[in-house]
Design goal:
By secondary structure, the chain is of the alpha+beta class. The protein has eleven helices and 13 strands. The longest helix has 40 residues.
Protein backbone atom coordinates (compact mmCIF):
# COMPACT_ATOMS: atom_id res chain seq x y z
CA UNK A 1 0.00 0.00 0.00
CA UNK A 2 2.85 2.33 0.89
CA UNK A 3 4.55 1.56 -2.46
CA UNK A 4 1.35 2.39 -4.36
CA UNK A 5 0.94 5.65 -2.49
CA UNK A 6 4.54 6.62 -3.21
CA UNK A 7 4.12 5.73 -6.91
CA UNK A 8 0.94 7.79 -7.18
CA UNK A 9 2.55 10.78 -5.47
CA UNK A 10 5.60 10.56 -7.75
CA UNK A 11 3.51 10.38 -10.91
CA UNK A 12 1.16 13.20 -9.89
CA UNK A 13 4.15 15.41 -9.08
CA UNK A 14 5.70 14.75 -12.51
CA UNK A 15 2.38 15.48 -14.23
CA UNK A 16 1.85 18.74 -12.38
CA UNK A 17 5.40 19.83 -13.26
CA UNK A 18 5.03 19.10 -17.00
CA UNK A 19 5.97 22.35 -18.78
CA UNK A 20 4.25 21.51 -22.06
CA UNK A 21 2.10 19.05 -23.96
CA UNK A 22 5.08 17.01 -25.18
CA UNK A 23 6.36 16.53 -21.62
CA UNK A 24 2.86 15.63 -20.48
CA UNK A 25 2.65 12.96 -23.17
CA UNK A 26 5.91 11.45 -21.92
CA UNK A 27 4.39 11.27 -18.45
CA UNK A 28 1.32 9.50 -19.82
CA UNK A 29 3.41 6.93 -21.68
CA UNK A 30 5.62 6.40 -18.59
CA UNK A 31 2.56 5.74 -16.41
CA UNK A 32 -0.21 4.40 -18.65
CA UNK A 33 1.51 3.28 -21.85
CA UNK A 34 1.81 -0.38 -22.84
CA UNK A 35 4.93 -0.70 -20.70
CA UNK A 36 3.93 2.03 -18.21
CA UNK A 37 4.39 1.50 -14.48
CA UNK A 38 0.68 1.46 -13.70
CA UNK A 39 -0.08 -0.77 -16.69
CA UNK A 40 2.53 -3.31 -15.57
CA UNK A 41 0.97 -3.41 -12.10
CA UNK A 42 -2.42 -4.12 -13.63
CA UNK A 43 -0.90 -7.01 -15.61
CA UNK A 44 0.23 -8.67 -12.35
CA UNK A 45 -3.36 -9.15 -11.24
CA UNK A 46 -3.72 -12.20 -13.48
CA UNK A 47 -1.09 -14.15 -11.50
CA UNK A 48 -2.59 -13.36 -8.08
CA UNK A 49 -4.91 -15.52 -6.05
CA UNK A 50 -8.53 -14.44 -5.95
CA UNK A 51 -8.06 -13.12 -2.43
CA UNK A 52 -5.00 -11.02 -3.39
CA UNK A 53 -6.73 -9.77 -6.55
CA UNK A 54 -9.77 -8.68 -4.54
CA UNK A 55 -7.51 -6.77 -2.16
CA UNK A 56 -4.97 -5.16 -4.49
CA UNK A 57 -7.04 -4.72 -7.67
CA UNK A 58 -9.12 -1.77 -6.46
CA UNK A 59 -6.01 -0.06 -5.10
CA UNK A 60 -4.10 -0.29 -8.40
CA UNK A 61 -7.21 0.80 -10.32
CA UNK A 62 -7.55 3.82 -8.00
CA UNK A 63 -3.96 4.84 -8.83
CA UNK A 64 -4.71 4.50 -12.57
CA UNK A 65 -7.82 6.67 -12.33
CA UNK A 66 -6.01 9.33 -10.27
CA UNK A 67 -3.14 9.50 -12.77
CA UNK A 68 -5.50 9.60 -15.81
CA UNK A 69 -7.57 12.36 -14.20
CA UNK A 70 -4.48 14.42 -13.41
CA UNK A 71 -3.23 14.06 -17.00
CA UNK A 72 -6.59 15.21 -18.42
CA UNK A 73 -6.71 18.24 -16.09
CA UNK A 74 -3.11 19.20 -16.86
CA UNK A 75 -3.74 18.83 -20.61
CA UNK A 76 -6.68 21.25 -20.41
CA UNK A 77 -4.49 23.82 -18.66
CA UNK A 78 -1.57 23.43 -21.08
CA UNK A 79 -3.82 23.67 -24.17
CA UNK A 80 -5.32 26.90 -22.86
CA UNK A 81 -1.84 28.31 -22.26
CA UNK A 82 -0.74 27.29 -25.78
CA UNK A 83 -3.81 28.94 -27.31
CA UNK A 84 -3.25 32.18 -25.36
CA UNK A 85 0.38 32.23 -26.46
CA UNK A 86 -0.61 31.72 -30.09
CA UNK A 87 -3.28 34.42 -29.98
CA UNK A 88 -0.84 36.85 -28.41
CA UNK A 89 1.78 36.20 -31.07
CA UNK A 90 -0.34 36.03 -34.26
CA UNK A 91 -1.84 39.00 -36.07
CA UNK A 92 -4.45 38.98 -38.85
CA UNK A 93 -4.16 41.81 -41.37
CA UNK A 94 -7.78 42.71 -42.07
CA UNK A 95 -6.72 45.07 -44.87
CA UNK A 96 -5.62 42.25 -47.18
CA UNK A 97 -8.02 41.49 -50.05
CA UNK A 98 -10.03 38.29 -49.86
CA UNK A 99 -9.03 35.57 -52.31
CA UNK A 100 -11.52 35.39 -55.16
CA UNK A 101 -13.75 32.34 -54.93
CA UNK A 102 -13.92 30.08 -58.00
CA UNK A 103 -16.70 31.16 -60.33
CA UNK A 104 -18.36 29.50 -63.28
CA UNK A 105 -18.22 30.79 -66.85
CA UNK A 106 -20.82 31.18 -69.55
CA UNK A 107 -19.92 28.88 -72.46
CA UNK A 108 -19.34 30.77 -75.74
CA UNK A 109 -22.16 28.81 -77.40
CA UNK A 110 -24.61 29.83 -74.68
CA UNK A 111 -23.44 33.43 -74.95
CA UNK A 112 -23.88 33.53 -78.72
CA UNK A 113 -27.31 31.87 -78.43
CA UNK A 114 -28.37 34.68 -76.09
CA UNK A 115 -27.00 37.32 -78.45
CA UNK A 116 -28.83 35.83 -81.43
CA UNK A 117 -32.12 35.55 -79.53
CA UNK A 118 -31.85 39.21 -78.53
CA UNK A 119 -31.12 40.39 -82.06
CA UNK A 120 -33.96 38.46 -83.65
CA UNK A 121 -36.37 39.43 -80.88
CA UNK A 122 -35.77 43.05 -81.92
CA UNK A 123 -36.68 42.01 -85.48
CA UNK A 124 -39.94 40.44 -84.33
CA UNK A 125 -38.89 36.77 -84.39
CA UNK A 126 -40.07 34.24 -81.81
CA UNK A 127 -37.99 31.25 -80.65
CA UNK A 128 -39.31 27.80 -81.65
CA UNK A 129 -38.04 24.40 -80.49
CA UNK A 130 -38.61 20.77 -81.41
CA UNK A 131 -37.41 17.21 -80.69
CA UNK A 132 -33.83 16.20 -81.42
CA UNK A 133 -34.88 12.67 -82.44
CA UNK A 134 -37.03 13.12 -85.55
CA UNK A 135 -38.93 10.92 -87.94
CA UNK A 136 -37.90 10.65 -91.57
CA UNK A 137 -40.86 12.69 -92.80
CA UNK A 138 -40.16 15.82 -90.76
CA UNK A 139 -36.39 15.65 -91.22
CA UNK A 140 -36.30 14.81 -94.94
CA UNK A 141 -39.51 14.19 -96.88
CA UNK A 142 -41.45 17.30 -95.86
CA UNK A 143 -38.39 19.38 -96.77
CA UNK A 144 -38.44 18.09 -100.35
CA UNK A 145 -35.32 15.98 -99.83
CA UNK A 146 -35.58 13.01 -102.24
CA UNK A 147 -34.94 9.40 -101.26
CA UNK A 148 -31.69 9.39 -103.26
CA UNK A 149 -30.25 12.53 -101.62
CA UNK A 150 -26.76 11.97 -100.10
CA UNK A 151 -27.90 13.43 -96.75
CA UNK A 152 -29.98 10.28 -96.20
CA UNK A 153 -26.93 8.02 -96.46
CA UNK A 154 -25.78 6.15 -93.36
CA UNK A 155 -22.36 7.80 -93.52
CA UNK A 156 -23.93 11.27 -93.21
CA UNK A 157 -26.85 10.69 -90.82
CA UNK A 158 -27.23 9.00 -87.43
CA UNK A 159 -30.20 6.64 -87.62
CA UNK A 160 -31.99 5.40 -84.48
CA UNK A 161 -33.56 1.98 -84.61
CA UNK A 162 -36.59 1.86 -82.32
CA UNK A 163 -38.55 -1.35 -81.85
CA UNK A 164 -42.18 -0.97 -82.84
CA UNK A 165 -41.68 2.37 -84.58
CA UNK A 166 -43.46 2.62 -87.96
CA UNK A 167 -40.34 4.14 -89.56
CA UNK A 168 -36.70 4.82 -88.89
CA UNK A 169 -35.92 7.73 -86.58
CA UNK A 170 -32.90 10.01 -86.98
CA UNK A 171 -30.91 12.40 -84.89
CA UNK A 172 -32.00 15.57 -86.64
CA UNK A 173 -29.46 16.79 -89.17
CA UNK A 174 -30.69 20.39 -89.01
CA UNK A 175 -33.30 22.39 -87.11
CA UNK A 176 -35.47 22.64 -90.25
CA UNK A 177 -37.97 20.09 -88.83
CA UNK A 178 -38.85 22.77 -86.30
CA UNK A 179 -39.88 24.98 -89.23
CA UNK A 180 -42.09 22.19 -90.59
CA UNK A 181 -43.78 21.63 -87.23
CA UNK A 182 -44.35 25.35 -86.78
CA UNK A 183 -45.93 25.77 -90.23
CA UNK A 184 -48.20 22.79 -89.56
CA UNK A 185 -49.28 23.87 -86.07
CA UNK A 186 -49.50 27.65 -86.37
CA UNK A 187 -51.27 29.91 -88.79
CA UNK A 188 -49.20 32.38 -90.83
CA UNK A 189 -47.81 34.98 -90.85
CA UNK A 190 -44.80 33.44 -89.09
CA UNK A 191 -41.45 34.77 -87.96
CA UNK A 192 -39.37 32.28 -86.00
CA UNK A 193 -35.82 31.26 -85.26
CA UNK A 194 -35.05 27.62 -84.43
CA UNK A 195 -31.83 27.27 -82.42
CA UNK A 196 -30.57 23.95 -81.10
CA UNK A 197 -28.30 20.92 -81.34
CA UNK A 198 -28.01 18.98 -84.59
CA UNK A 199 -26.08 15.83 -85.55
CA UNK A 200 -24.06 14.76 -88.57
CA UNK A 201 -21.42 12.09 -89.03
CA UNK A 202 -18.36 14.32 -89.41
CA UNK A 203 -15.26 15.16 -87.33
CA UNK A 204 -12.40 17.60 -88.08
CA UNK A 205 -11.27 21.12 -87.14
CA UNK A 206 -14.42 22.69 -88.57
CA UNK A 207 -16.95 19.83 -88.18
CA UNK A 208 -18.15 17.82 -85.17
CA UNK A 209 -20.75 15.03 -84.88
CA UNK A 210 -22.87 17.30 -82.70
CA UNK A 211 -22.99 21.06 -83.20
CA UNK A 212 -25.36 23.99 -82.78
CA UNK A 213 -27.39 25.60 -85.51
CA UNK A 214 -29.86 28.42 -85.78
CA UNK A 215 -32.36 28.67 -88.60
CA UNK A 216 -34.79 31.43 -89.42
CA UNK A 217 -38.14 31.28 -91.17
CA UNK A 218 -40.56 33.95 -92.38
CA UNK A 219 -43.91 33.03 -93.97
CA UNK A 220 -46.17 35.85 -95.12
CA UNK A 221 -47.74 37.34 -98.21
CA UNK A 222 -45.54 39.14 -100.72
CA UNK A 223 -42.18 38.00 -99.31
CA UNK A 224 -39.19 38.48 -101.64
CA UNK A 225 -35.42 37.95 -101.72
CA UNK A 226 -35.10 41.61 -100.79
CA UNK A 227 -36.65 40.89 -97.40
CA UNK A 228 -34.20 38.01 -96.93
CA UNK A 229 -31.15 40.11 -97.78
CA UNK A 230 -32.21 42.97 -95.50
CA UNK A 231 -32.85 40.57 -92.58
CA UNK A 232 -29.47 38.88 -92.94
CA UNK A 233 -27.64 42.16 -93.34
CA UNK A 234 -29.30 43.67 -90.27
CA UNK A 235 -28.65 40.54 -88.21
CA UNK A 236 -24.96 40.27 -89.13
CA UNK A 237 -24.28 43.97 -88.56
CA UNK A 238 -25.78 43.72 -85.08
CA UNK A 239 -24.02 40.45 -84.21
CA UNK A 240 -20.52 41.44 -85.37
CA UNK A 241 -21.12 45.05 -84.22
CA UNK A 242 -19.86 46.54 -87.49
CA UNK A 243 -21.62 48.77 -89.99
CA UNK A 244 -19.35 47.78 -92.89
CA UNK A 245 -20.76 44.25 -93.25
CA UNK A 246 -21.17 43.52 -96.97
CA UNK A 247 -23.11 40.52 -98.30
CA UNK A 248 -22.93 38.64 -101.58
CA UNK A 249 -25.65 36.13 -102.48
CA UNK A 250 -24.45 33.37 -104.81
CA UNK A 251 -26.90 31.05 -106.58
CA UNK A 252 -26.87 27.60 -105.02
CA UNK A 253 -29.09 24.56 -104.52
CA UNK A 254 -30.97 23.32 -101.48
CA UNK A 255 -33.93 20.95 -101.85
CA UNK A 256 -36.10 23.02 -99.49
CA UNK A 257 -35.59 26.46 -101.07
CA UNK A 258 -36.06 27.83 -104.58
CA UNK A 259 -34.24 29.96 -105.50
CA UNK A 260 -31.39 29.15 -103.11
CA UNK A 261 -28.38 31.28 -102.24
CA UNK A 262 -25.10 30.85 -100.40
CA UNK A 263 -24.36 34.01 -98.43
CA UNK A 264 -20.79 35.31 -98.52
CA UNK A 265 -19.61 38.03 -96.15
CA UNK A 266 -16.80 40.47 -96.91
CA UNK A 267 -13.69 40.42 -94.73
CA UNK A 268 -10.50 42.41 -94.12
CA UNK A 269 -7.15 41.60 -92.53
CA UNK A 270 -6.56 43.33 -89.20
CA UNK A 271 -3.42 42.67 -87.13
CA UNK A 272 -2.78 39.47 -89.03
CA UNK A 273 -6.31 38.18 -88.44
CA UNK A 274 -9.18 37.82 -90.88
CA UNK A 275 -12.09 39.92 -89.57
CA UNK A 276 -15.59 40.14 -91.01
CA UNK A 277 -16.30 43.58 -92.39
CA UNK A 278 -15.10 45.38 -95.50
CA UNK A 279 -14.52 43.72 -98.84
CA UNK A 280 -10.90 42.58 -99.19
CA UNK A 281 -12.21 39.07 -99.76
CA UNK A 282 -15.28 36.87 -99.36
CA UNK A 283 -16.09 34.17 -96.82
CA UNK A 284 -19.00 31.74 -97.15
CA UNK A 285 -21.06 31.97 -93.97
CA UNK A 286 -24.57 30.60 -94.32
CA UNK A 287 -27.20 29.15 -96.64
CA UNK A 288 -30.55 30.70 -97.47
CA UNK A 289 -33.33 30.96 -100.02
CA UNK A 290 -37.02 31.31 -100.68
CA UNK A 291 -39.05 28.45 -99.14
CA UNK A 292 -39.80 25.90 -101.86
CA UNK A 293 -43.51 25.83 -102.86
CA UNK A 294 -43.55 22.07 -102.28
CA UNK A 295 -42.44 22.56 -98.67
CA UNK A 296 -45.19 25.14 -98.13
CA UNK A 297 -47.74 22.75 -99.66
CA UNK A 298 -46.46 19.82 -97.56
CA UNK A 299 -47.34 21.85 -94.47
CA UNK A 300 -50.92 22.40 -95.59
CA UNK A 301 -50.51 25.98 -96.87
CA UNK A 302 -51.29 27.38 -100.30
CA UNK A 303 -48.00 28.43 -101.99
CA UNK A 304 -49.98 30.73 -104.29
CA UNK A 305 -50.99 32.76 -101.23
CA UNK A 306 -48.06 32.34 -98.86
CA UNK A 307 -44.39 32.86 -99.58
CA UNK A 308 -41.38 32.91 -97.31
CA UNK A 309 -37.64 32.76 -96.85
CA UNK A 310 -35.40 30.62 -94.67
CA UNK A 311 -31.75 30.63 -93.66
CA UNK A 312 -29.42 28.61 -91.47
CA UNK A 313 -26.00 29.11 -89.90
CA UNK A 314 -23.83 27.27 -87.38
CA UNK A 315 -23.83 28.94 -83.95
CA UNK A 316 -20.38 27.52 -83.17
CA UNK A 317 -19.04 28.98 -86.41
CA UNK A 318 -20.42 32.39 -85.50
CA UNK A 319 -18.70 32.16 -82.12
CA UNK A 320 -15.41 31.21 -83.77
CA UNK A 321 -15.55 34.17 -86.14
CA UNK A 322 -16.57 36.75 -83.56
CA UNK A 323 -14.33 35.69 -80.69
CA UNK A 324 -11.24 34.49 -82.56
CA UNK A 325 -11.38 30.70 -82.11
CA UNK A 326 -9.66 28.50 -84.67
CA UNK A 327 -10.89 24.96 -83.91
CA UNK A 328 -14.44 23.70 -83.40
CA UNK A 329 -13.58 20.56 -81.42
CA UNK A 330 -12.59 22.21 -78.09
CA UNK A 331 -16.16 23.54 -77.85
CA UNK A 332 -17.23 20.04 -76.79
CA UNK A 333 -14.14 18.62 -75.02
CA UNK A 334 -14.91 20.09 -71.59
CA UNK A 335 -11.41 21.50 -70.97
CA UNK A 336 -11.68 23.98 -68.10
CA UNK A 337 -8.60 25.87 -69.30
CA UNK A 338 -10.24 26.53 -72.66
CA UNK A 339 -13.44 27.73 -71.02
CA UNK A 340 -11.48 29.96 -68.64
CA UNK A 341 -9.79 31.55 -71.65
CA UNK A 342 -12.81 31.91 -73.95
CA UNK A 343 -15.74 31.79 -71.50
CA UNK A 344 -17.70 34.77 -70.29
CA UNK A 345 -18.14 35.89 -66.70
CA UNK A 346 -21.70 35.28 -65.61
CA UNK A 347 -21.68 38.73 -63.96
CA UNK A 348 -20.03 40.64 -66.79
CA UNK A 349 -21.02 39.23 -70.18
CA UNK A 350 -21.15 41.30 -73.37
CA UNK A 351 -24.69 42.22 -74.26
CA UNK A 352 -26.56 43.70 -77.19
CA UNK A 353 -29.08 45.54 -75.07
CA UNK A 354 -28.86 48.50 -77.41
CA UNK A 355 -30.71 46.41 -80.01
CA UNK A 356 -30.38 46.49 -83.74
CA UNK A 357 -30.20 49.70 -85.70
CA UNK A 358 -33.35 51.26 -87.06
Amino acid sequence: MTDLADLQAHLLTAIAASPGLDALEECRVHALGKQGRVTLLLKTLGAMTPEQRQLEGPQIQAVREAVAGAIADRKTVLEAVALDTRLAGERLDMTLPVDAAPTGSVHPVSQVMDELAEIFADLGFAVATGPEIEDDWHNFTALNIPETHPARAMHDTFYVEREGAPERMVLRTHTSPVQIRTMMNQKPPLRIIAPGRVYRSDWDATHTPMFHQIEGLVIDRGITLGHLKWTLETFLKAFFERDDIVLRLRPSYFPFTEPSAEVDVGWTMQKGRRVLGGSDGWMELLGSGMVHPRVIANCGLDPAEWQGFAFGVGVDRLAMLKYGMDDLRPFFEGDGRWLKHYGFSALDVPTLSGGVGA
